[in-house]
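Minimal example, chain plus magnesium ion.
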Amino acid sequence: MIRMPQPLTVVILAAGLGTRMKSRKAKVLHRAGGKALVEHVVETALALTSRERIFVVVGHQADEVRKAVSTPGIGFIEQAEQKGTGHAVMVGRGVLEPMGGYLMILYGDSPLLRVATLQRLIHTVTDSGAAGVLMTAEMSDPTGYGRVLRDSHGHVESVVEQKVATPEQLGIREANMGIYCYRADLFWEHVGQIRPNNPACEYYLTDMAEILHRAGHPVDAMRIDDEREALGINTRVELAEVDRVLRDRKLRELMLGGVTIEKPETVTIDADVRIGIDTVVSPFVQILGKTTIGENCRIGACSILKDSELEDDVLIEPFTVVGTSKVEKWSQVGPFARLRMENHVEEGAHIGNFVELKKTRLGAKSKANHLAYLGDSTIGARVNVGAGTITCNYDGFAKHQTRIGEGAFVGSNSTLVAPIEIGEGAYLGAGSVITEPVPPDALAIGRSRQVNKAEWARKRRALHKK
Ligand code: UD1
Ligand code: MG
């Protein structure tokens, strides 16, 4: 948060539908960089001021937009009918005006804005003593943007929207980015003068510059070098561009922080992911949600990790899928393994190919190396789970628990019909169907006995020759 002579209030306009998205979903709910667009902007605002001074103007799908803002304590202003950017701020007058200080206006569909740029905007207004500052950029093609007209002192005289600009004004390349910081007292004193006197019959926030200028309160413009930072998303093409920029930023931040990312152009990492130093991320990996990864791990190619926690020195082999699970240090998972949900793999455990775990705790140094389904299970330390082991956790109505004690040996192709308990140190014969509890250190064999019929095969062959 930055220190200011007077407090800062941030209003985020997010009431519009975004027709050009061609979507049933409000524009700010679309996701880029792993988060809803509006969430990015709220997070940026949180770096500038306290949460009780941040307000989101909602209209289209107001309830969904409220839900998408996960930070508690953010204020919402309802704009039932969208009558323009000026109107969007005016409907919040009751709560916003008493806040005093400075008023910053951001758009919910501009997630690339950097905190440092907005700090510069704030300093520009506080240092200059101007009534307000607009963020502008010199664009080679400013089509669609409002054009900035300056007076002989360089102050902003007015902003002319594309639709009403004269051919001469359309030649101006300084474009309004739609991001402002105003002195709240002057803003509220004059905002009532905005009139819907344009072809769209909307209340344009851009009129504030002219109104204040006319009243003798200078408004300044602050140029940014790269207008893409203020890019407001209108179409899905721009959504993809912004997604790429956000993801590149995240990858850079991780790489500069000590994480090796191979072929970063193929890797997808969400904004809230944290990764420790010397971890290596292989090509085509996706690390999503609130995943945290420790130091010195390796994430194999094409693996997908979501909302999970990996401690240090974990090896995830290629093509592994991990969801809402915890993996302790020195463990190995994969290739082709699936930790579906809510699993806890303890220190030094090994999970191999085509093994699925669901709501299962696998004890330290235990191994399930090939072809198994372990669901709703608690498995002790140093257990060997043979290839083809299946926990039958579902009886068609309810899920049941399997417990396997420390040091047990589960023979290959065992079928464990839950609820069931296997004692510590017990052995299960390969191919057993286990329906009764097995005491500690016992051997359980649950299969029919083998019968050898002497000469049977030879007789059959002879029969066929006739
Ligand atoms: C606006 C500016 C224009 C600037 C451009 C930069 C005005 C009149 N024009 O135009 O000078 O160059 O941004 O991108 O302000 N919104 C509401 N309620 C409303 C209307 C809009 O919440 O009633 C929200 C929208 O959801 C959107 C933002 O405000 O996030 C901007 O509105 P939009 O209609 O896109 O303005 P532009 O035409 O782009
Ligand atoms: Mg726009």
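The longest strand covers residues 174-183. Residues 236-256 form the longest helix (21 residues).
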